[in-house]
What we know:
Largest sheet: 8 strands, parallel, barrel
CATH class: Alpha Beta
Number of strands: 10
Mean pLDDT: 95
CATH topology: TIM Barrel
Order of helices and strands: HEEEHEHEHEHEHHEHEHHEH
CATH architecture: Alpha-Beta Barrel
Shape: globular
Strand order of the largest sheet: 1-4-5-6-7-8-9-10
Distance between the termini: 45 Å
Structural class: alpha/beta
CATH superfamily: Aldolase class I
Low-confidence stretches: none
Radius of gyration: 21 Å
Number of domains: 1
Amino acid sequence: MSIPFNQSFPATRLRRLRQSGWIRNLTAENTLTPADLIWSMVVHDGDEAKVPVAAMPGLNRLNVAEAAKAAKRASDLGIPAIAIFPHINPAHKDEEGSESLNPDGLIPSVIKAMKDAAPDVGVICDVALDPFTTHGHDGLIDESGYVLNDETTAVLVEQALVQAEAGADVVAPSDMMDGRIGAIRAALEESGHSNTLILSYAAKYASGFYGPYREAIGSATALIGDKKTYQQNPANTDEALREVAMDIEEGADMVMVKPGLPYLDIVRRVSETFQIPTFAFQVSGEYAMIQAAAQNGWIDGDRVMMETLLSFKRAGASGIITYFAEAAAEKLVS
């Protein structure tokens, strides 16, 4: 039966472009590839190859040898870079985080092992003191527990230089101290590391989504107070643009928004405003929620994993730091 054209039966039917997989793929506005992923990885200084993290189902802390194998795995999957985060023996922690400056410590050892195993994979190193301090803060504290900005920055400069000397491709200050990007950039230039990239955690919010990560690196029980005096207020967006602008002016090559999903609006504003490589961090709490819901049968874990990763690209992210990198890359190349 023919139905005459009227407003109820429009000539334009958008469902035509959704009717088959080939046309959906052909007309997709955004795509996700392994090259969009940065593998977030927790490493540890023990002998055990893999240590499960209870708060992050499916995630293991890796020792140096396993981290090197993972770097080769990343190369095989087309994952361009790995971001490493340390879990160290508590006996090596102190109030100043002095182990962060050990040229023979965990992070320098992992950097060297990864670069030997997979020279084509970029190694990104977190620059912050929280994995190394007994109090769990990202910097040095005074008698009242306040995190000292300039004194902390001086230590972060040394930490970044240790990482660069070990062969890190990217240093990534995540501490949110004012002025640390400029100080680190100047020190890298002066020490002959002018090609070492800086990925600034420029818009890092004081978020409740970091809890599982603090268990993963062993700082959850150590943390005294909170980090609201240096990480950003979740209520603010314009402040994020000011932070990003300052870090770019000081020499950041790339910037990051953290956490990811709750702050997609910030990802969009930053990427559109500055047109600089902008990364989003799908943090531990986001990962843990997806994994827990999937394990309970409430969601299709793989489908939600891929959907959330694509949402970062749709928001304007150049790439995504995620604990799902290996699993997602496997699906993308299969």
